[in-house]
Amino acid sequence: MTSIYRINYHLRAHKRDPLIEFIKGMLLTPFVLHATPSTAMVDQAPSSTLPVRDNSSGSASHATPYMTDTCTSLAETQPTEKSDCDSSSASHDTLPFVLRRNSDAIRANEQRYAEIMGDVEALIAEHITMQEKGLEKYSRLRRLVPTIGTFFTPLPLRDAFLYSNAKYAIASRKYIPPSFNEIRRTLNTAQVWASAPHLKFITFDGDMTLYPDGQTFEEHSHLVGLIIRLLQADLTVAIVTAAGYTTETARYEARISGLLKGFADANLSPEQLSRFYVMGGECNYLFQCGVDCGLHYIPENEYSSHQVWSDHDLQSFLDVAELNLWQCVKDMKLDAKVLRKPKAVGLVPYSPLNREQLDECALSTQQCLLQYNRVSTPDQGRIPFCAFNGGNDVWVDIGNKLIGVQMLQEHLHFSPKETVHVGDQFLSTGNDIATRTACCTCWIINPEETQGILEELLQRLS
C-alpha cells in the first residue's frame, strides 16, 4: 500500500500546488460533514402547485406539489442558482421526496468555510513573522506544508473567500466541494487586495496570459486598455516571456503589435512609455519602449550585475539538454524535432503531443540537468536554467524568470513587496513558478482571467 501511494504521489505531484491542496483538504471536512442534503417526505396535500412543461404540447401544466416553503424562499434569495426543487419533467410520482436546501444551513456552511480561510490567513501571518526573524522553517505552516515558500504580504483570505462566495455561491453546493481553481482564484483576489496599496511594478507572462498560445497581442484585446490604464496610474509594466528572439527587436514588436499600436493611439507621454519593458528569453534580452512606441534593445551590461556565463559552459550545458531531448524523441517515438538557439534548446513537435508526453520531456530533461549541475533545484549551480512544458512544446532556457524579475527589480529599484507577477505556469513543469521567490504572484489560466485580475486591481488603485 505504501509503495502504491508513493508511486501515485510522484506521478501526480507535478500537477499539484501544495498550498492549494492543503486548503482544499481543509475545506473538504465541513463539506463532507455538513453539506450533505437532508431529505423529507412531501405532504400529499395540494397546498400549492408547481408548473411543469408538457413536452407533447409545449404548454405548462400544474403537477402535484413537491416544492416546500424552504425551497420557495431559497429560490427568491438565490436567483442565479438552479435549485434541486426546480424540474422541467419530474412529477410527484417520480420524485416522492424533496432534497431541501435550508438557507440557515447555507449560511452556517459559509461561516465554516470562512473560518477555515481565516485560520489559513493566520498561519500565513505567523509564517511572515517567523520569516522576518529568519525562523520560517519553524513556522506552523512550514510544518503543515513543507514546501511552502516566501510570502511578501499577508493575504486577506477570509474576506476574499466571502467575496468569491457572493459571486459563485460556493457554500450553497451540496455535491461539489470547493475546487482547485476556486481556491486559486480566491488566492489571486487576496493577493490583489494585499498588493494594491504598495504596488509599483507588475510583470506578465506572454502566451496564455496576455494572448492565446503562439499568437500575437491583438489591438482589440480588452487587455490593451487595461495595461494603458496601469501606465497612466504610474505603475511600471513589463512582459517577461520565454520567447527568445535574441536582439531581433522586430520579432518582439510583432508579437505585441496590438499593444504598441494601442500605446500610440492613447497618446501616452514619453515618461509613461518609458515605464514599459519586455524581457525576452526569460532573463536574457531586455527592451524598453521609446517615444516612437517601438522597442529598443538595452545591452546587458547596462542593467545586469548578475554573473555572466562563459560561452563554453553555456554550450556544454545546452549539449546535455539537447541530447536528452533527442533521447525523449527516440524513446517515446515522438513526431518532433529539437531546435537549438544561442541560449535555449527546445523540442518542437510536427504534430500535437499530449500533456503527459510534454511533461515527461520537461521533467526528464530537468532531472538530467540537475544531475549535470549537481544541485537540487534549477536556480542553483553554475548555470541556472528553466526546463518547462510550454503547452505545445518543451524548452530549456539558460536562466529563468526569477533572474529576469530580479534583474528588473534591481535595475528599476523595486522591492518584492512592490512587485506582482501574473502568469499561467506555476506547476513544477512551468516557467512562472520561479518568480515566487522574487515577488508576489497571481496564477491565471487564460487572458480572460488576467482581465479580471486587472479590473479588480484598477478598482483598488482608484
UniProtKB/TrEMBL annotation:
Its EC number is 3.1.3.99. Residues 44-65 are annotated as: Disordered. Its cofactor is Mg(2+). The keyword Nucleotide-binding applies. GO terms for biological process: inosine salvage; nicotinamide riboside biosynthetic process; nicotinic acid riboside biosynthetic process; nucleotide metabolic process. Residues 289-312 form the C2H2-type domain. It catalyses: IMP + H2O = inosine + phosphate. InterPro entries: HAD-like_sf, ISN1, Znf_C2H2_type. PROSITE patterns: ZINC_FINGER_C2H2_1. Keywords: ATP-binding, Hydrolase, Magnesium, Metal-binding, Nucleotide metabolism, Nucleotide-binding. It holds the Pfam family ISN1. One of its GO terms (molecular function) is 5'-nucleotidase activity. The keyword Zinc-finger does not apply. Homotetramer. This is IMP-specific 5'-nucleotidase 1.
